[in-house]
Amino acid sequence: MKLSAIKKLSVCALAALFVPFASFAIPANVASSLLQKAEDATAFYGTDFTASYEVVLEKPGEGRSKTNATIYRRDNESKWTILITAPLKDKGKGYLQTDSNIWFYDPADRRFTFSSSKDKFQGTNANTSDFAPQHYVRDYDIDAIEEVKLGSFECVLFTLKAKAKNVDYPQIKLWVTKNDGLTRKKEDYSLSGQKLRTTAIPSYQKVDGNGKSYQIPVSMVIQDNLKGKKINGKMDYEKTVISISNATLVKQDDAVYTKPYLELMSGK
Question: Under a CB-based contact definition with an 8 Å cutoff, are residues 215 and 44 in contact?
């Protein structure tokens, strides 16, 4: 995707985030079922997931930088591998989650260093956890629910508060479309209620595999609500646009989810 198209996408997607909405009532049991559906849509249990990711960071007044990577996931074993393929200075770097640990590999010194799901991916506004399954039901309690409109989408707005200790954000708000259970918008908050990030997922693509169809984001726009500057009198925040392509649902060799694999691929 060209950078001009990405900029247009990010502007349109984020503009849709702030459209005023009307709220309605929804039964709690229906809302709970929808939240579970939204969580299930972020995972690929029973099959491996592989895709190409283009991650573009836009800093107001400073331009853009782009990172390309191939991501492999085996969600039923909580394993994933990220292999960076561009730019040239970062090619061969990678991330690995296995045995509940996350490791970062730098081929320059051929060393693995411990990382965290809360760490930023290559200096962007994305966390490494954004590339893995989300656990809304397991890690959060529903604090409030509303039936709302988000632009043209009929959604349920969930306000969630963490019940687990190791979550990235203690409070989140989640907009889920009623007809398909897909997340369209997410806001991440601190414990004090300060908004930290806003994520928009304007569209999805269908990928078939393992005897079923999966809905995978075409792109995600992540806005950092703490980093920005005024441009021509208007506040402009840092944004990261993640575009996903070449998605497949085919089992990979077990070796893909190991340290030796990252070491091997870093030399190619």
Answer: no
Q: How far is CA 92 from the centre of its chain?
A: 22
Q: How many angstroms separate the CA atoms of 49 and 45, rounded? A: 9
Structure tokens at 144: 């409030």
Rounded to 10 degrees, the C-alpha dihedral 224/229/235/238 comes to -30
In this predicted model, what pLDDT tens digit does every residue of 46-85 receive, in sequence order? 899 999 999 999 999 999 999 999 999 999 999 999 999 9
User: In terms of Cα–Cα distance, which of 167, 100, 90 is closest to 122?
Assistant: 90
Phi and psi dihedrals of 36, rounded to 5?
A: -65, -40
CA angle, 157 then 161 then 162, to 5°:
135
- The amino acid at residue 37 is K
Q: For strand 23-24 and strand 49-59, is the pairing parallel, antiparallel, or unpaired? A: unpaired
Residue identified by tokens 């009532």 is 25
Query: pTM for this one?
Result: 0.88
